[in-house]
Design goal:
By secondary structure, the chain is of the alpha+beta class. Helix content is 36%, strand content 12%.
Amino acid sequence: MDARTPRNVGRSGRMRTALKERWNAPQGLTLNRTQLDWRAAMQSTCTVPDCPRQRKSRGLCNTHYERLRRTGTLDYRPPTPEERFWAKVDATGICWEWTAALSDTGYGWFSLGKGIGAHRAAWQFLVGEIPPGLVLDHLCRNRKCVNPDHLDPVTQQVNAARGGAPTHVLARSGMCHKGHSLTADDYVHRSDGRVTALCRECDRARQRKRRGGGSEWRGITAVRAVAYELERNHA
């Protein structure tokens, strides 16, 4: 009997122990009864150097065993944020479309320690930091696009003015929601730098109705209807 073999283990016990150790050994390592170190067979820690975790299967702890099962190697390097990001981008077309999670408003969503718009992450990776006080406007009007060539850093006011809201569509058309043409006198410059369109003809009509005792009618539906007609005519 081998001097390293426990005395109370017979031939069948030694064979079972050897087979068990062979099954639990890392892939590529072949053990037989003559090569088996019983003291190593009794150890309870992972066989990967400098790993103090408890052994679970094939001589490996649960972490290294799952890593070996998923990747086929123990030399695992976590992907960088750039690698994680570009693996989720379809850059085959003119627009580089985001293929992963989307926000409630339809923009791509990516995690860089905290949630961030995918188009903002692409700008930071390829261009640099976004200037303070500016936002990125999609010139292509595709919210899932992360192509920096389709992004323009502008103020929030400019970004909103370029949008498809009914009031902004009317402002770009030079008409109010009642269809009156706006002139230079109809634009009011506020103290904070913003410019507001105020139709003089509509204001005179409200004044006449107020003097006549009628209530002012707020045509929100009319605003949307006129904006829809303008968009359809331009299309």
